[in-house]
């Protein structure tokens, strides 16, 4: 609440003059939220703030001030690299196919079918472990535990409107580009469910 904004000159030197107004094209360091609000008059969803920590950077700004927030998650870059490998794509495709087969074929109760189902379950378990190991052998992906989002992703989704590996990712978009939220299907909205299920 006390640290004032300081202007940075062309040589990168921090100036100690009191800041009465933030000027376009200038670089400032330090400062605090309350001084920022006073100098800009910006309120609510007109502000898009980027930070790299969910709680110390984003949570209060979302909850108390209604700001839009963007999270910088450097680990995303390596996770995307892994997810785009041929091995990962093939493994996930087969895992999803195998899960679909298990869902459809579990109604068959004869001994031969049950034997095949047990083999598929064993293979599915091994493949789930393999997909976890693509990322980190101890805890898997930062974003997903099997088919569920991790606690980290749930908090990230709660406090960040958008997230990316670095701010430079925005250079891939036109300045007038709008990011729209995606609708996540709920269990009862999935096509496999029927009335009364």
UniProtKB/TrEMBL annotation:
Gene3D superfamilies: HAD superfamily/HAD-like. It holds the Pfam family 5_nucleotid. GO terms for molecular function: 5'-nucleotidase activity; metal ion binding. SUPFAM superfamilies: HAD-like (SSF56784). Keywords: Hydrolase, Magnesium, Metal-binding. Belongs to the 5'(3')-deoxyribonucleotidase family. This is 5'-nucleotidase domain containing 3.
């Amino acid at each position: 609440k006390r640290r004032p904004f300081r202007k940075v000159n062309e040589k990168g030197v921090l100036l100690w003059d009191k800041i009465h107004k933030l000027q376009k094209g200038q670089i400032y360091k330090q400062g605090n939220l309350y001084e920022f609000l006073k100098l800009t008059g910006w309120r609510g969803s007109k502000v898009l703030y980027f930070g790299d920590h969910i709680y110390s950077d984003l949570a209060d700004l979302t909850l108390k001030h209604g700001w839009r927030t963007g999270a910088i998650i450097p680990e995303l870059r390596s996770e995307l690299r892994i997810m785009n490998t041929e091995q990962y794509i093939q493994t996930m495709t087969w895992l999803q196919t195998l899960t679909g087969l298990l869902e459809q074929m579990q109604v068959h109760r004869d001994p031969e079918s049950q034997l095949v189902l047990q083999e598929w379950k064993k293979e599915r378990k091994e493949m789930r472990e393999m997909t976890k190991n693509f990322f980190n052998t101890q805890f898997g992906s930062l974003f997903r535990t099997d088919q569920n989002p991790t606690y980290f992703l749930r908090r990230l989704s709660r406090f960040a409107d958008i997230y990316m590996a670095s701010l430079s990712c925005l250079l891939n978009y036109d300045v007038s580009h709008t990011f729209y939220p995606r609708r996540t299907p709920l269990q009862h909205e999935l096509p496999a469910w029927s009335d009364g299920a």
